[in-house]
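To close the chapter, one final illustration. This time we ask the reader to focus less on the individual chains and more on the assembly as a whole: which components sit near each other, and how the overall shape emerges from the parts.
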Amino acid sequence: MILNGNSPSGPLAQMWDRRRQELKLVNPANKRKYKIIVVGLGLAGASAAATLGELGYQVEAFCFQDSPRRGHSIAAQGGINAAKNYPSDGDSIFRLFHDTIKGGDFRARESNVYRLATLSNLIIDQCVAQGVPFARDYAGYLDNRSFGGAQVSRTFYARGQTGQQLLLGAYGALSRQIHAGTVRLFPRSEMLDLVVVNGQARGIIVRDLVTGMVNSFAADAVCLCTGGYTNVFNLSTNAMGSNVTATFRAYMKGAYFANPCYTQIHPTCIPVTGEHQSKLTLMSESLRNDGRVWVPKTGGDKRAPRDIPEGERDYFLERKYPSFGNLAPRDIASRAAKEVCDEGRGVGPGGRGVYLDFADSIARLGKEKIAERYGNLFEMYQKITAENAYDRPMRIYPAPHYAMGGLWVDYNLQSSIPGLFVLGEANFSDHGANRLGASALMQGLADGYFIISHTIADHLARTEPGKVRPEHEEFKRAEEGVNSRTKKLLSIKGGKTASDFHRQLGSIMWEHVGMARTRESLGIALGRIPELRAEFWENVAIPGSGAQLNQELEKAGRVADFLEFAELMALDALQREESCGGHFRVEHQMPDGEARRDDENFCYVAAWQFRGRDGSPELHKEPLIFENIPLATRSYK
Amino acid sequence: MDLILYIWRQNGPEDMGRLEQHRALHISPDMSFLEMLDQVNEALIKEGREPVAFDHDCREGICGMCSQVINGIPHGPQKKTTVCQLHMRNFKDGDTIYIEPWKARAFPVIRDLIVDRSSLDRIVQSGGYVSVHTGGVPDANAILIPKEDADSAMDASECIGCGACVAACPNGSAMLFTAAKVSHLAALPQGRVEAARRVCAMTEAMLREGFGNCSNHYACEAACPKGIKVKFIAKLNREYIKAQFNTGRNT
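The assembled structure is written out below.
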């Protein structure tokens, strides 16, 4: 089937205005009759729940953490982009749009990205009004810095804790609505199924993680804001709890999953130290503003970094990409790092690392200035590695970080199931095959503060409020499904932990569906994943019962879904016979090793429809049309 | 290295709870404290026993979810460090380590090392925000903020809401937590308008939730993984007294 993104017609710059004119409204007196469920309370979810509650809808908001202030958006360090052009360095909405389309390697929808660039400016205004303490200059104006993939300074930041400060702003707005009674909060609650009645999303099944009770919640619309799936690699920069369950369950209920093979491997993470590792820690990409990336020119050079003379160092990003240098986009920087390590020139234990060196910046700006910009990152680095990055260069290596793929949505953020909306990282829409730095926070907040309130009204205006009750048989059936799955998991009493399986899955995915993929490696993954899954369902060990707080049960449920999702990801990577952005197929590269895109055959969004456990998923294509930015080879040289 | 652990086990809020001895063997100094506990838990599961329940999520020191008292100190011995960022190189072979949950009247234990900190959320809900609508706000640069004020707001706003300050305080007080939010918003022109109402509402909520008062022990600052300063408590008190005079409110 050819999918339609439902974008407005006409000139790009007027699309969002035109769409807002077309969308139906719900009158103020009727709003309180409608119930909306919001799942996940990171930036997208908290901002959506707060905004919808403020408008007068009844909102029920769910998160698995103990508080909505802990969504993983909080860990974003570097910043948030906006086309404000405060530094007058040539920025504009069109340029931000252009950079995002190009950064995404021409695999995003133009209309969505243009809207994102437009709304970026409103986000900064909104956050400042909430009291988000962005960095300022001595005259009291907002300060900006530059980021990967851009030649202008358009990134707003709050020390190295921008995600935290933006999330606390949204959490404040949400708290205000909870106090006002428009939002009911359900923390320590996990969505385990979506309920669809007569083709329309009507509610969710939720497990209370403290009591173990499984309950039905009915609503007139459901918003999934549940983040990304890179924990499919086991080791990633995501929080331990980040998972694919909500979106994968929605996929099994009929929502299309788009571009699952687009995952971002972030170049600046702390290298792995050993088997015990439970997660990888990101060092903000903003460090690349003042740090220079290098490795020794010859392999096996065991000298301390400071003893290696300038002439024997290879500043490989500056060498290969002179115009962007250390600020080359993430996918490019990651692959370049892998390449030099594969050549045997990597540094640190295991040879999986490259230097990120601040010596020149410290000499130029002074240690104090560097400490002001990145002090908390240097502290974090020291805690983890016991090394002082003011004295010796940091060691960094790429790690799975962000999912560009996600549930397919149209221009209105509505999935292929009417009434199911998907916001933030959980959807696929705005970053194409690669996300630029400081764009994730922007997208989460654009979706939550400024888009969903308009588009959801159009759905609600066509829906009779409260028509489906939690007593409906579909809810009963879904609850039974959840309960029997829990029972099954607990009855296995095998010999391996959920973490054992997660580690095994992670190594399959990193090895065969990671930074570089081949037809052969994907074939291996597609063979091994079902084997591992079968073993999981015979040999996983989960102590305790379902009627209590049981963290192993939670973990096992998430790993079980990753074991299914992983296959879809490998399948998608296999069908995409081209290299683009974060998806690098070894068979498809230029003579110089750069990605070879195939616009003739693959300029589309791959959206997969679930066809039962025994059938293979069906591929639908949404053609991508570039009318405003001509398709071109992405070059950062 | 090998370690002896005494870990608090408690089945639920009504259970008495007790310290249980465990052994952690072959621990690498590069492990984080939570990775050490992961290893202990995996061994327990393989023996068919229930693992130790503990809160954690981001494991990079920012989400504020992890919460353990280690050898009597919230978040353990390393200054300005959450449990998830505490590494085993801070301990030595043969050490005995006591691991307990946050202890405070306003934080009932849910299970083992997990406590209920929703009381902190309710303090924020009572007024810890700027009451701005979505949309319809002025251009970001229309509000100029002196760098010193923005920096001071940021110093306060770095609070991760973990509750270590409460756990460290002999009175179980949430003054540092509340002070951080009050000070962050009171330092900025956007937050100034509601400052008096905010400080009164948040102080009332703090008392309602069963947190104790501040008697200047400064244990909160010592335990805070983000190094939030007690000077913000002075700021809170000043804001509170100002509010009493300015608004005529005395609740």
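The mean pLDDT of chain B is 96. The beta strands of chain B are 3-9, 18-24, 69-70, 73-74, 96-100, 109-111, 114-115. With these observations in hand, you are ready for the problems at the end of the chapter.
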